[in-house]
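Sample entry (235 residues):
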Amino acid sequence: MRTGTAVLWVLTGGLGMGMAMAASGQPAPNTLTAEERAAGWRLLFDGTTTAGWRGFRQTAMPGGWAVVDGVLTRVGKGGDIVTEEEFSDFELSFEWQIAPGGNSGVFFGVSETAKAVWHTAPEYQILDNAGHKDGATPATSTGANYALHPPARNVARPAGQWNQSRIVVRGAHVEHWLNGERIVEYELGSADWKALVAASKFQEHSAYGTVRPGRIALQDHGDRVAFRSIKIRTP
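Predicted structure, serialized as tokens:
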């Protein structure tokens, strides 16, 4: 689709919803409450610039990603983007919106010594379950640890609506949350983990799921996707 269409899609769910939330007394997108600040949260996206992010194995932000009315949006071909910082244990919270038929993901434990993000990093799958073929398979549906651990339930909202997600990493323990529900749990390096990886496409990449600290990445899978209220806290 044309970039203009992409911008219109973001405007319908981005700025408008942000104004509605502020009017209702809820925190506006890309802000922290006093309670969140006290609890150690900080923003990874300020709602205005792409500061703190760059292209995977690049020195700058690719042109296919832009801030559109307070939303970090994949508007064209740009490749995956990563945080400038690296993280070990953390809790990551973010809101996302996918286009009809769209596919994307959020990765952690990214190493830039690898040729691709997914060679080292587990993926929190983002998908239009109803409009993409991968939605028919639980292990590749929204919220899954992609291709390895399916979500316990499908609690994803439809394409064009905002979803709220969390990734929790404490030592080897990882949790995926979606719209207030914990839907996936796994242990990096466990017998279960090793068996699943050995039976997957990740078996060819010895560092998969082992990089600590590592970067967080947002995936360009060729579809429109938008992120906001990206925040993190670390021990």
